[in-house]
């Protein structure tokens, strides 16, 4: 059995979490591609519009990948501490604060990306795009 410093409450080693973080990043990228295809079809995007949306989504995705690396480092540091110790608790709070700030930044970036996409669309496409978002929000 692994040393308690190397395991999490669910029994997974931190190495497993790293694998999941990388997989989640790839999953998110695949989801972006799927969403772009759906948008292109539903909104009848021109090739120029589709290329511009792809570029915006790619830039948003790349901006998020750096956060995953920082968080992985933070979790590695946490794993080296004795669970329940003052140092562990302080590090956990630090990670929570970083996560909250990162979530806020991701929401801002997503809003900026959506606004840029709206700027690329015709009024009819923009209306349909907003309807798509409303449907996705109610899932």
Helix-strand blueprint:
Blueprint: H1 14-43, H2 47-79, H3 86-120, H4 123-137
Helix pairs in contact: 1-2, 2-3
The low-confidence runs, each spanning 5 or more residues with pLDDT under 50, are 1-25
Shape: elongated
Total of DSSP H or I helical runs spanning 4+ residues: 4
What percent strand? under 5%
The residue fraction in helices comes out at over 70%
Summarize the structure.
Helix content is 81%, strand content 0%. The protein is mainly α and 139 residues long.
Task: Describe the fold and architecture.
With 139 residues, the chain is an all-alpha fold. It has one domain. The chain is built from four helices and no strands. The longest helix is centred in the C-terminal third of the chain and has 35 residues. The protein is elongated. The termini are far apart.
Question: What features would you highlight for this structure?
Answer:
single chain, 139 residues, mainly alpha, elongated
């Amino acid at each position: 059995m692994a040393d308690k410093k190397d395991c999490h409450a669910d029994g997974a080693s931190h190495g497993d979490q790293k694998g999941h973080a990388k997989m989640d990043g790839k999953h998110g990228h695949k989801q972006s591609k799927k969403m772009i295809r759906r948008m292109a079809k539903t909104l009848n995007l021109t090739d120029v519009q589709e290329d511009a949306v792809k570029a915006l989504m790619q830039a948003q995705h790349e901006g998020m990948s750096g956060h995953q690396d920082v968080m992985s480092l933070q979790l590695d540091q946490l794993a080296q501490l004795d669970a329940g110790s003052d140092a562990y608790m302080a590090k956990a709070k630090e990670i929570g604060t970083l996560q909250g700030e990162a979530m806020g930044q991701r929401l801002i970036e997503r809003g900026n990306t959506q606004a840029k996409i709206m700027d690329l669309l015709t009024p009819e496409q923009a209306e349909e795009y907003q309807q798509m978002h409303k449907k996705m929000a109610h899932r």
